[in-house]
Amino acid sequence: MSALDPDVFRQAMRRTASGVTVVTTDGDEGPLGVTVSSLCSLSLEPPSILFCLHRESRLLPIVKANGVFAANILADGQQRVADSFAGLIPELREDRFAAGHWSTLVTGSALLDGALCAFDCKLASIFEFGSHSIIAGEVLAAEMRGDKPLIYSGGDYRQLETA
After folding, report:
1. Does 146 have pLDDT greater than 80?
2. Which CATH superfamily is domain 6-159 in?
3. Is it the case that residue 12 has pLDDT exceeding 80?
């Protein structure tokens, strides 16, 4: 069986739509965050979520060391926060958190004010697959704050429309 051409796979995945999430962590290793598009629920018992990070991500060893993280699902209009944590705004590369206003709940990880929703988690497990690590977290607290999700598809942000 032949392997799928990576460019074909990449182009096909660009056609899908996903929510935009900023994952943050804070602890002895300090605060850090990154934009991801691969967050989903994992289990109701215990309440848990998962997201994926490239194995070379700066965030991965910090999440491991801190043992906690928050997943902020961005609301429509929070593109600047997404771009900041993706490293796309040069003047914010040294302080990506300056793109928003933040608070904390249980773990001390940063929760974005006005995010669609946020999950405050303790690290449960990390699985390795291919070039990425799959990070599972047990949700200790959650908040719902925003109204409409920020959507990413085709290399650009989109708005959710009513059918």
Report:
1. no
2. Electron Transport, Fmn-binding Protein; Chain A (2.30.110.10)
3. yes
Tens of pLDDT, residues 37-48: 889 999 999 999
The Cα 69–Cα 51 span in angstroms is 11
Beta bridge partners of 120: 70, 141
Contacts of 38 by beta carbon, 8 Å cutoff, 6+ apart: 18, 51, 52
Domain boundaries, the chain: 6-159
Is residue 112 a contact partner of residue 81, using CB atoms and an 8 Å limit?
A: yes
Q: Where are the alpha helices (DSSP H) in the chain?
A: 6-14, 59-66, 79-85
Express each pLDDT in 115-144 by its tens digit. Answer: 999 999 999 999 999 999 999 999 999 999
**DSSP characters over 17-28:** -EE-EEEEE-ST
Give the list of residues 6+ apart from residue 55 with CB closer than 8 angstroms, or none.
Answer: 128, 131, 132, 133
Q: How far apart are CA 85 and CA 123, in angstroms?
A: 21
